Amino acid sequence: MPVNLSNPRPLAWDSASLDADTRAMLDNLQPNILRAHVREHLAVLILRFNDAAEGRRYLREIALTHVKSARKHLEEVREFGRTGRNGTPYVGIGLSRAGYRDLGHSVADIRKFGDAAFKDGMKRRIAEVSDPPVEQWERAYQREIHAIILIGDADPEPVERLRQRFVRDLPESARVLGEESGTGMRNPAGDGIEHFGYVDGRSQPLFLADEVEREPRTNWDPFFPLGNVLVADPLAPNPSRHFGSYFVFRKLEQNVRAFRQIEEDLADDLGLRGEERARAGALLVGRFRDGTPITGKEKAGGGPVANDFTYDGDDNGDRCPFSGHIRKTNPRSFGREVVMARRGQTYGERTDVPWDDAEPHTRPSAGVGLLFMAFNARVADTADGRFGQFEFMQRSWANEPNFQVEGTGHDPVIGQGEREIKVVFPKTWNRPDRTPAMRQVTQTVTMMGGEYFFMPSLAYLRGL
Ligand code: HEM
């Protein structure tokens, strides 16, 4: 039975009755796609090859020795749950369109990839998503990138060991164009946060039965069919068993000082005092810092970070504005086909305490941010009219001031492009009163560079 990418039931990956094709798919899929891999410590190598044979040999060797399968990863997670034994490090390999070409693939081969954004490369898509001109990107990303290697683990040592080894083994003809490193940040409750101080990574599409079953799902169903992230690997020996995923990588710098000042100014404009002031930031993000969705509660707090909610009953944005980052990027009552698996990681050192209320001037204004990473089945819209995921979300939702309702404004966190129109905010939670029209908050997240990759099947990589 061919792998059913639209199976309406979550994948029971360890079921004895799993069909042979799905089994082969899991044995040949890279980890971190269907389920997030632990990557509290992450190293990223951005590479360029200049010799096809040497590049192939290098990647094949890493794939054979260090890239585990999705199934192995899932087994490790199960084992950790039972015995507390740590799994092996995550190693992931992605190739850009230029990378496939440089590894010796023909134009005809590359045409087999369905995604227009991947085939163009990120530099040629800046107009689509209002990215800054390439000349303003960091040097490493201005160059032609062929491959990305991700190395992740719960501890720093295995990551550093593998990083050194992969750099050492690089053939003479190849170059490390750039490196990134990310370290997870957590609040006192132990939840992962991003640099503005908010809990991040909570809302995800889930594909596996054991993950779905753990979630309350009365209002919002976090289950998505495999086709949300997987596509047949067109260059693998058997594309009906060998799958991959388009991987979006973007380095997004966060001006934390400016964002914190914006929160304070908005709280002043709304006349908020004391603990109420936290509502200002929640209006921008859609969640309070501790992750509490503002559509459900006027104040933060009250147990584990909720995700079983929709915006039903908040039809006019009286609680969560339509512009709020999480409402913009997942309206929840439509647009499920646009949802993508986010696997981001924070980068940059902090000497301050990211989740506390210290003054904005004590915050970093550069050098910290998010290595935004996401797996997609479609980055761009398709020729036959299906919406893309990353590009559609960034362009038609985050950057679109009239998305959902005229005059909504840009996504205040990630919106790009001129913020010309004025906007209003709900003054009192769950009441129809609004502030006078005011200028939109300024942009505090800057795209520093990135690339579109394909994360191929192990069958492809091992056969290089
Ligand atoms: C959720 C912050 C970039 C799409 C969130 C959340 C935070 C956050 C705090 C709430 C946690 C959660 O619901 O999981 C940020 C910051 C960014 C950034 C600080 C940049 C530095 C992006 C980008 C996109 C994106 C570039 C896509 C174009 C989403 C989506 C959700 C989300 C889809 C989940 C919404 C939901 O399902 O309710 N982000 N984000 N984010 N973000 Fe971002």
Kindly describe this structure:
With 464 residues, the protein is an alpha+beta fold. The protein is 26% helix and 16% strand. It is built from 15 helices and 14 strands. The protein has helices at residues 20-28, 52-66, 70-83, 97-102, 107-111, 116-120, 126-129, 139-142, 156-168, 209-213, 256-269, 278-285, 325-329, 390-398, 458-462; strands at residues 41-48, 90-95, 147-153, 175-183, 185-186, 192-193, 231-232, 243-254, 341-342, 345-347, 369-376, 422-423, 438-439, 445-455. The strands form 4 sheets. Strands 7, 8, 9, 10, 11 and 14 form a 6-stranded antiparallel beta sheet that branches. It has a 4-stranded antiparallel beta sheet with strand order 2-3-1-4. It has a two-stranded antiparallel sheet with strand order 5-6. It is globular and about 65 Å long. 47% of the residues are buried. Protoporphyrin IX containing FE binds next to strand 8, helix 13, strand 11 and helix 14. Protoporphyrin IX containing FE is lined by residues 194, 196, 198-203, 252, 254, 285, 287, 325-326, 329-330, 369-370, 372, 390, 393-394, 398, 413-414, 445.
Largest sheet: 6 strands, antiparallel
Give the helices and strands as they follow along the chain: HEHHEHHHHHEHEEEHEEHHHEEEHEEEH
Tally the beta strands.
Answer: 14
Strand content of the residues, in percent? 15-25%
- Mean pLDDT rating: 97
Give the bound compounds: protoporphyrin IX containing FE
Radius of gyration equals: 22 Å
| Helix content estimate | 25-40%
Name the shape in a single word: globular
Poorly predicted residue ranges = none
Strand-pairing-aware structural class:
alpha+beta
Separation of termini?
27 Å
User: What's the helix count?
Assistant: 15
